[in-house]
Amino acid sequence: MSDFVLPVTRYALSGEVNIAYQTMGDGPVDIIMVPGLISHVEFAHEFLGYTAFLRRLSTFARVVTFDKRGQGLSDRVSGAPALEQRMDDVRAIMDDIDSKRAILFGFSEGCAMSTLFVATYPERGSKLILFGGFTRPVAATRPEWILEHVKAWGTGALINALLPSMAGNLDAVAQFAKFERLSASPGAIKVLLQMNALIDVRSVCPVVRVPTLVLHRQTDALILAERGRDLAAQIPDAKYIEYPGSDHAFWSDEVEAMLGDIQEFVTGERDSAAIELERVLATVLFTDIVDSTRSVAEAGDHTWRRLLDSHDQLAKQMVEKYRGSLIKTTGDGILATFDGPGRAVRCALALGTATRQIGLPSRAGLHTGEIEIRGRDIGGIAVHAASRHGAVSVGRSSRIESRHRPGGRRGPEVLETRFA
Fold it and tell me: Could you say which DSSP state residue 85 is in?
């Protein structure tokens, strides 16, 4: 199994402004990812699914991400950069990596600049991919909406629009709040939102002459799907595809069908074998706190946060003690892996006892089988099975039930364990 190393941040000089960017892969074509409202090329890798999405693209292309001027790791500037300046920044990055022609992949507000770029410089833009885009101002640019979100900037409130599927996860909200703060200041984001209210590329869309793929989620929480349909309808011969889900972020929710459509659009082929996921045999431990929703209501946010911090620290100590790997905390539990079921079982029992002592009884499930390594995350049947098995609370009098299933047509040899 080869160890994946996150890409190194580099800088391209656009005029007198340094633009931070990263590259992944060495495919025969370049895909420039044009960000939406906020970005941070390094912290974005902390989001579940983001790195895996880019890695999949990097199996058939060289993928470039960057921070707009004034945001993330790029130089801060006064005022809001015009779309023309952002186009200059893309050209500066392409020159820095010696890219003669690239596919522009616009996300949200980045769709407008991407559309303008390929219409203005058709010799440098070979294809256009637009996700969650629009042609003209949307409801989210009303003055009252702008003031409301500037006031709440840095609290993670924007997660309700970009990642509603994660909005109920306290850890995810805290993570998104940090993303907001690292991306831009409240004043900078206010200016940017006000500028976005002026975006209108309806006159630009008809002159686009490159192959275009427009993608949107059916119940997008920020930009209605009808906006995406309108965008596709105004670009000659554009192909439009909708996917289930409400998350506005391209890397979240179910992305496999989308990645297949993108690969087919870029390469002309749809080869599922191109998903070079690393697979290993491991024992997966999945835990969650019993009745966490009720506990939050009874304890209050401040007390619950303190208890949860204690829980997470205990979990980290126990996983390390039994030589496991803590993959992530889930807001009310953990996901960890071990190289054998014995230590995983002992860890689960010890953790169950420890968490009960601080008033947070937990339940756990174990499953030994093949897992998929997805950057800093894991996936596969073993993970889902462990989650299913964790339906009964783990306590001091736990009884361990195991069932051995040999390998064969149904998959690799596994040991399934639950606590009762």
Answer: H
